[in-house]
Amino acid sequence: MNITVMEELRMFNQVYREMDAFYHMLAVKSGLSDSALWILYSICEDGDGCSQKKLCEKLSTSKQTIHSAIHKLEQDGILYLEAGTGRDKNICLTESGKQLMEQVILPIIAVENEAFAMMGETEAKELLRLSERYGRLIREVYEAGNEHTDFRTL
């Protein structure tokens, strides 16, 4: 198999892996799984009462992964579930969960905000625009397949 990857794409993928490793390190330092960190982050963004279904969609993560992480956080006394609409369960923070949010998630968001602000409005918008475009193009190419690989069998 002949694989050609541009140096820029290799660098982009390396940056992506480094960002992923950075958030993983933050999760580990906080005693959380990656999924738990992102669940708490999402609750911080959206507020108490978001549904498991909404989390799966927002985090682009399987129901099983979200359910397992929520179950662990529930066992640890970080959150609890209450009845939502239909079969949905709403996720709410306990007092311990609110403290964890203050100690872990809000500082992460503060670091992100500062780093994003340092880029300036023009660069920040360009980063977002190009990232969205690249993500959209990857999906389009994947869905269309190409002459070398039939992605539809995956």
Bin the strand percentage. 5-15%
| Rg estimate, integer Å | 19 Å
The CATH class name reads Mainly Alpha
Protein structure class: mainly alpha
If classified by CATH, what would the architecture be? Orthogonal Bundle
* Average pLDDT metric: 89
What is the CATH topology assignment?
Arc Repressor Mutant, subunit A
Q: How many strand units?
A: 3
Counted by DSSP, the helix tally is 5
What composes the largest sheet?
3 strands, antiparallel
Summarize the structure in words.
The longest helix has 50 residues, at 95-144. This protein has helices at 7-29, 34-46, 52-59, 63-75, 95-144, and strands at residues 50-51, 79-83, 89-93. Strand 2 and strand 3 (89-93) form a beta hairpin. With 154 residues, the chain is mainly alpha-helical. The model has no long low-confidence stretch (mean pLDDT 89). Helix 3 packs across helix 4 (63-75). It has a single domain (26-147), classed as Arc Repressor Mutant, subunit A (Orthogonal Bundle). Strands 1-3-2 form a three-stranded antiparallel β-sheet.
